Amino acid sequence: MSILTSTLLPSSLLIPRRTKPINSPNNKVVFHKNDHYLNRIVPQKKKASFCIQAQAQQVEPSIPSSPIIYPTVRPKFVLFGSSIIQYSYYEGWGATLAHLYARQVDIVLRGYGGWNSRTALRVLDKVFPKNAPQQPSLVIVYFGGNDATHPQQDGNGPHVPLEEYNENMRTIFIHLQSLSENTRILFLSTPPINEEQLYGDSIPLDPPKTNESHRIYSEEGLKVCRELNIKAIDLWSAIQEEREDWKDVSFIDGIHFTKEGSNVVSKKILKVLREADWEPSLHWEDMPIEFKDYYTPIGPGGEPIDESNTRFPPGVEWE
């Protein structure tokens, strides 16, 4: 089997093809030419009898009979919900989480615009199978905005009656709680909307969405969370309490968040993760950094530069 050799263990899961070896004081490792994940990396316990030349060269080293397989499965956070989840990577709070946890957690987006809690139940076992080899450490759940849409006379549309919404969310939470004893859940309640921005100058007499209906469904979701001991964020209140001009700065279209609106969401999420009494902690400053000690870049003066937990951009303070 042809393999490439190097003295450097890359800091990311994807192994780049190198044109020449890089000197490193760490143990030499061997990685397969066509394998891209570090769980395929086989460290050499002793000095290996193979040659490293200036240019990358296919060689045949002696591989240990019992290769050491490094565990590389990161913890997983799943964002599950409707468009507030799906669009969360557009200058949004989902992108902020992915940025802060870049070396610690895989943030998995499962957002489905237009869905309500009834639709979510149809795929719950597919998105979160109980026999999955790895269960999420955290699931952030949002459904409610589409459920809160007023019912149409023909029975179509995303509206879900309040009592059914309660039962649907209860079923979702209980299923997630059953995945593993270490799976944590955080619910985002239905946020407010800006009716003037949503409808413009022609607000209908019976608008399909109102800020009041969002309040009602927000409170219902929070009620279920209290009964099941689920941590939750009251977004309907949080957005409106953040600043007086919340209507003007929080929404792109009256419903979905701008960068400013998303900043409120990410701040509230990080606050919950910091203060939660979960063991182990899921806050980004407490979780271990993947391969932190495997490779440290060396500066021009020969000093090590630890970039594994660098705050970026400089000067920005995160919760």
UniProtKB/TrEMBL annotation:
Domain SGNH hydrolase-type esterase: residue ranges: 79-262
Region described as Disordered: spans on this chain: 300-319
Annotated source species: Lupinus angustifolius
Family: Belongs to the 'GDSL' lipolytic enzyme family.
Keyword Isomerase found: no
Name this protein carries in UniProt: SGNH hydrolase-type esterase domain-containing protein
CDD domains assigned: Isoamyl_acetate_hydrolase_like
Sample GO molecular function, one term: hydrolase activity
Pfam family name, one: Lipase_GDSL_2
One GO BP: lipid catabolic process
InterPro entries with a match to the protein in the record: Iah1-like, SGNH_hydro, SGNH_hydro_sf
